[in-house]
Amino acid sequence: MKLKLTIISIFLIGFISESFSQSKILKGKVFDENKDPVENLTIRFVSLGEITTTNSGEFEFEVPADLSFVEIEVNDKNWSIISPLDNRLPIPSDELFTAKIFLVYSEKEDDDMINRLADKMDAIEVLLKELGFAKEREQQMLEELKSKLSENFNFKIEDFQNAIEAKKKRDALFSDISQELSEFNLAINDVNTMFKNINIYAAEDNMALDELVLYINKYNKVFSSLTNNKFDHYNLIESLWSNPELAEEYMQTVNYAIDEIHKPYILRLNETIVVMNKINRKIITDDDEVEELKTKIKTEIETVVKELERRLPVLDRKIEAILLKLKE
């Protein structure tokens, strides 16, 4: 009887020892769509248990040694798993390897949730590219992810697709408006600098006059684009952003450039070029008249430059403000 008990004990000890040896540590780290670590988030390993990530988004969890993957879930339903897309996390054979989980966050109670998720699709596309999937598989995963997010956050896939398309249109329009306003701002500052530096010398020197004309022509091209597009851009902002106030702020910015800078100052600089060209080309030959005109032109340019230096920082702030709001 004692021999039997001894054998059973040895068997049980061996069985328990073998059971403990048949497990391994799964190391992992959780990121959001921007690859920032997600801290203090509870990950559930289906049928095995759960664990909470550290402040650096990391976790360690004991799993059976014979498992090749484990199904994962996130307790906080505001998070949705991007990768692994099927929620099946491969378990590395090397315990030193760190498995990676990528998530996207959106509050389910947010009335604008669908648009906020659409805004995140660019970052998700970049992420999938960086994860090294083939182009075809990457596109397939994007479509699968759209369906998954629609289901997880309870909205129609058609509505989500429309929100994504609207986001792409907003991005394209923002790029156009940003380039146009930035080019105008640069052109007007360049004109002001050139007139400040060259001033009346353009009436006496062909190269100086040509330099002024060059910068004025560059400015005129950008200004024409700004004025030709302003109503289309106004209507598109109102439509794509569903924000009449934002469209109105854009229009006010453009109108400030036209009414407070172009009309009262740039047109006056254009007139000085016309007169300096006549002097430079000897169309006006009377010495007294030439000297009188030079004095008037010099005073006019100095007055305009001084006013522009006061108003251009205001324009710069207006442009910065509207671009920041369009980007948000």
Your description of this structure?
A hairpin with a 3-residue loop joins strand 2 (42-45) and strand 3 (49-52). This protein folds into two domains: 23-155, Immunoglobulin-like (Sandwich); 169-327, no CATH class. The protein is elongated and about 105 Å long. The strands form two sheets. Strands 4-1-8-6 form a four-stranded mixed beta sheet. A four-stranded antiparallel beta sheet has the order 3-2-5-7, with no helix packed on it. It is an alpha+beta fold. Helix 6 packs antiparallel against helix 7 (244-280). The chain has eight helices and eight strands.
Write the layout of secondary structure elements.
Layout: H1 2-21, E1 23-31, E2 42-45, E3 49-52, E4 58-64, E5 69-74, E6 79-83, E7 88-90, E8 98-105, H2 113-119, H3 121-130, H4 135-153, H5 157-198, H6 206-240, H7 244-280, H8 287-327
Parallel strand pairs: 1-8
Antiparallel strand pairs: 1-4, 2-3, 2-5, 5-7, 6-8
Helix pairs in contact: 2-5, 3-4, 5-6, 5-8, 6-7, 7-8
Short description:
The protein has 328 residues and is of the alpha+beta class. It folds into two domains: 23-155, Immunoglobulin-like (Sandwich), CATH 2.60.40; 169-327, no CATH class. It has eight helices and eight strands, in the order αββββββββααααααα.
